[in-house]
Amino acid sequence: MAEPHLTSNPWALAAKNLCFPIFCLNCRERLLTEENGYFCPTCWELASRIEPPLCPSCGRPHTTMVGLGSRRNFPCAECREHPLEAVGRIYGAAMYEGVIAEAIQALKFHDKHRLAIPLGELLREFAAEHMAVEAYDFIIPVPLHRVRFRERGYNQSALLAEECAAAFPKARVCHDLKRIRPTRTQSKVVGDKRADNVRGAFAVTGDQLAGTRILLVDDVVTSGGTVIECARALRRAKAAHVDVLAVALVEHRAART
Ligand SMILES: [Zn+2]
Ligand SMILES: [Zn+2]
Question: 118 C-alpha vs ligand 1 centroid, how far in Å?
């Protein structure tokens, strides 16, 4: 399936901006430069990024350091109670809130596919700072079902995978993971029904993933149900290891509801 190519011709954009002024989606300030196209530099820079200390399992930042002391890499309470299955660890560049949440909504539901460029940059910055970037053979986007793909015209996770690939010198983007049955958007499904919603929804084509190390890319991780189900399919195809990189993570408490 062909993905739209994300080009940004600065002259064409500047001319367009003169005729059709554009405004920051967050503060409504007029945008004069085309760095991002949707958010002003102030709003974008102020968006909070995830920084250590964080949970080495689900990637959420530890909200309090009290009592952690030298155990900064200790899993959070949620992960001690429900350890991740099939996935090595989840990385997220930001929490799902404020400007980042607005950007993801716009990318996903309002046809703003050029937002994959700044969001991909966010992923590259996070990877360079906090990940073992040489550890992966393949970067695999969480796939859309073909019906949803036709409606939307693009898969936002595939755009993000392409945009962040430059940060991983030994990995290449691969589309061998498919969504074989339609599912509802996880954020619209009640907490404990999310695992059922995606169960058996994914399958791998071909056999090139056997023995490889995979980085699965998604826009948002809510409860983790989708990426865990994807990882199960990848492990059934004999992948040696699966980690996850998402633009944003939903706070555990919000993910349960
Ligand atoms: Zn702004
Ligand atoms: Zn955790």
Answer: 14
